[in-house]
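pinging the channel bc i need a second pair of eyes. not urgent but kinda urgent?? the chain im working w is below, pasted from the shared doc
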Amino acid sequence: VYNFCVAVDDALMKISHVIRAEEHLSNTLRQVLIYKALGFPTPEFAHVSLILGSDRAKLSKRHGATSVDQFGREGYLPVAMINYLSLLGWNDGTEQEVFSVQDIVSKFSLDRITKSAAVFDEGKLTWINAQHIRSLDEPTLATELLHQWVESGLVAPKDAAVPLSTESAFIQQATHLFKGSIDKVTDSVEQLSSAMSYPLEDTIAGTTPGAEGLQALIDDGLAEVAQRILESAAAGELNDDVQRDEALWKAYIKSLGKALGRKGKRLFMPLRLALTGQLQGPDVGAVLRLMKAAEDEGVVVKGMVPLEKRIAELGRLSKSLASPQRV
């Protein structure tokens, strides 16, 4: 019944080409006979190798995501899925791996279908997805990231009646900041959340990424840098204008380095820790500007610790930065 229904349905829809997995080879012969018996034109048939999981078994639900919708929810772009799926059993005869949909349409041909089974490699899919993210123009990427941030509850407008848009300086700055570091659009939720947080106490306790490098900073006079930052904040040197303006921020760093007799990593690493609470992450100045943009526009970012609270926390924990003692 299946073979009869499929043949009649395809014929009535005037299907010209049938491309399917090799496990349908046995069905093809039966369907061709049905086409001929009923006087229908026979379409062109092609069969491709099966897609296998990493264990070389036929890809199934136990290997993870199996629907396009689920891959979308996990942060993969439609163009990346099309790109990667096209490479499972096909290539254009070159070393090229990243294609636009238009590229695939113009280059695809059945004579380049491979006979060997393809293995679904999620790592390769993620890499291809990252390449497509890098190639997106920022307004398009901003739309994708804004959706992620709002849906996750991380970002919200101060006034619910006025939704956030990609015209927001905060959204534009955040998109630019994370474009080069995310592999999936969902990665941006964790990265934005991390940048807006201030886990200094956790870093001192050794529970944040890169915290193992804290002792070297302590031994190199971290407390001195922290104290100078606290003094500059109290004197109004580290103010709103410095936080907003990149040129003023650079001038502040230069002045800080001159006062401390430090430059390079000896200046930037303790500065990063003091103002972000972390030893890894995006550019410190960009993070400060992003926070100020959120404040200026009234964007509510869950867990965001503004600069004045960071300074207060730095002051509270400054004694812990002068010795290896943990708090």
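so The longest strand covers residues 17-21. and The first helix runs from residue 2 to 12. — does that match what u expected or am i reading it wrong
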